[in-house]
Amino acid sequence: MNQQQLSSFIWSVADLLRGDYKQADYGKVILPFTVLRRLDCVLEPTKEAVLAEHSAKTAQEMNPEPFLLRKAAQSFYNTSKLDMRTLMGDQDNIDQNLSAYIREFSPDVRDIFERFEFATQIDRLAKAGLLYQVTEKFARIDLHPSKVDNHQMGLVFEELIRKFAELSNETAGEHFTPREVIRLMVNLLFVEDDDILSKPGVVRTIYDPAAGTGGMLSVAGEYLVEHNEKASLVMYGQELNPESYAICKADMLIKGQNVSNIIRDNTLSNDGHPHENHRHFHVCLGAFQPQAGASQGQGSAHRRVELLAQDAQESRLEAQGDERRRHRHRHQTVWRLSHGPACDRAGHQWQGSGAAGCAGGRAATARARRWQRQACTAVADLLERRVRLSHYHRRAPFT
């Protein structure tokens, strides 16, 4: 089962939720259950050893945590005798047993489920008579690392996040930044770093002060693996929204990152990585989504991105000798630069003016977002080509 099939199978749990849950709330059940099943599968081989170690250290009145982490060979553990398969043996007490199982995870994992408000969802599913069916469906999925490695699991989780964001109808960028935009930003950040693109054993730290669901950190990690498998990227982040924080932390945990580097708080009023700790980062990134009435500086930045995209596309068409398409593309880009932001603002204004207005607003906003994605993709492609050329010819990647 490939990544797309696996994410589709997991999302099919939504068929059970239909009627009792709104579409926008599907992710509140599916995302934490996916995390739970993954962790359950990861800990399965060492479960007996961890339970034995926990009993021994508790009897000796010692702090068992460091010993349990060593036995689990992970950055987390669980001391419950239950797992998702044994939960299926007691249908009448599924809610109590599932809650008890989650309470026995290590603190970082418990924090994820608390931010997901998973206890509320367990109670809601139990009252609707759906908890056993949902748990059983997830228990049938084998997410052990031998079947689904960290990279593939990360892709599956990101696909679920994307579907959740689309159904929740969040303002663009508030819950899920398009991957085309992130890819462009990451290319711009690393394109002139010769060491990270070529030297083995190089280590870089990256910090996202508004991490959201962790998409930028994830894409940065994928970019590094693609260009230099022997380099290492240590990720740090901070996020205010509890649900986004939970998703980000879960994503990092699934990919084997140190989740203690992800902080939940307001970056401006309470820095989670303060300077007094002598914390410095090689790269600091972040994204903003321009709203109606955005400043002239923000608008200018997006105009520069689109103009870069125009140059990239024109260069491609010129190389192909397609003059007619090159001139038509220039006219289309000029129209987009002058009308795109207006359409985006109009989309926001139309959303409150009835069914027809909502449809028109969504269409206009979708067009603006599509243009943004096309622009970012074109520039990212251009940068990728220059990185490859610089690697082969050993000259500065981008001037």
Q: How would you summarize what this structure contains?
A:
It is built from 17 helices and 4 strands.
Structural overview:
The protein has 399 residues and is mostly helical. The protein has helices at 3-11, 14-17, 27-43, 47-59, 65-72, 94-103, 107-115, 118-127, 131-139, 150-168, 179-190, 194-198, 215-227, 242-254, 296-319, 323-350, 354-393; strands at 203-208, 232-239, 262-264, 283-284. It has a four-stranded parallel sheet with strand order 3-2-1-4. It is globular and about 60 Å long.
List the helices and strands and how they pair.
Layout: H1 3-11, H2 14-17, H3 27-43, H4 47-59, H5 65-72, H6 94-103, H7 107-115, H8 118-127, H9 131-139, H10 150-168, H11 179-190, H12 194-198, E1 203-208, H13 215-227, E2 232-239, H14 242-254, E3 262-264, E4 283-284, H15 296-319, H16 323-350, H17 354-393
Parallel strand pairs: 1-2, 1-4, 2-3
Helix pairs in contact: 1-10, 3-10, 3-14, 4-5, 6-8, 7-14, 10-14, 11-13, 11-17, 15-16, 15-17, 16-17
Mean pLDDT: 75
Number of individual domains: 3
Q: How is the CATH topology of the largest domain named?
A: Ferritin
Q: In the CATH classification, which architecture of the largest domain applies? A: Up-down Bundle
Largest beta-sheet characterization: 4 strands, parallel
Give the helix/strand class: mainly alpha
Separation, N- and C-terminal Cα atoms = 43 Å
Number of helices: 17
Q: Say how many strands there are.
A: 4
Strand content is: under 5%
Element pattern in H and E: HHHHHHHHHHHHEHEHEEHHH
Query: Which value, in Å, is the CA radius of gyration?
Result: 24 Å
